[in-house]
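Onboarding guide, step 5: your first structure request.
Type a short instruction followed by the sequence, for example:

Predict the 3D structure of this protein.
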Amino acid sequence: MNGFRFTNRSDAGIRLAPLLESYARRRDALLLAVPRGGVPVAAELAARLHLPLDVFVVRKLGLPGHEELAMGAVAADGRVTLDEALIAAARISQAQIAAVVARETLEVQRRTRLYRDGRPERSLRGQFVILVDDGLATGSTMSVAIHAVRAHDPRAVIVAVPVGSREACDAIESLADHLICLLRPETFTAVGSHYHDFSQIGDDDVRRSLADVAAMEAERSLVV
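The system replies with structure tokens like these:
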């Protein structure tokens, strides 16, 4: 399946859903999407598995001068992980690192407020927490998310992604309680190369998806 490509992120979520069927309708399970790309994937999972959805904002720390390369990541609780080998090889100073962390921390806080739109943060204690993104390239962002979620005492941390590099999947499998990944291609260049449509997701798209899922959840609670 090395040449397989998802139509878009929604299609990826639809295809991923059957592998998470054992968590469907559970009161002790919830989905946490890593914005922005993980939200449309997780929204499809929420609709099909009848699970609540929240966001867990994590930002890549771009290497100064080569921002497309991740030298680490920062989560909403301020937790930071760094690729010390890459930082040393690129000769990045502590001052440069601090500047990037400060900038991305502000963006994490902004997005968290914007995406929740007044909705309270969900408790993760004792829950099967399913972290969802649109793919794993280096795994650095998901690594931060896993460590940050564990601080909230969940019952288990499950990572669900449509595609991932073999290196990233190996790293995440050592951190999560369970990794579900549809595609682990032999040749991996970028997450987007495994989608026909990998259009950028905007803040309004994220808010709309979260609001739609919240409305569906409210309707289900009325039926029950």
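Each response can be followed by summary notes, for example: The longest helix spans residues 94-116.
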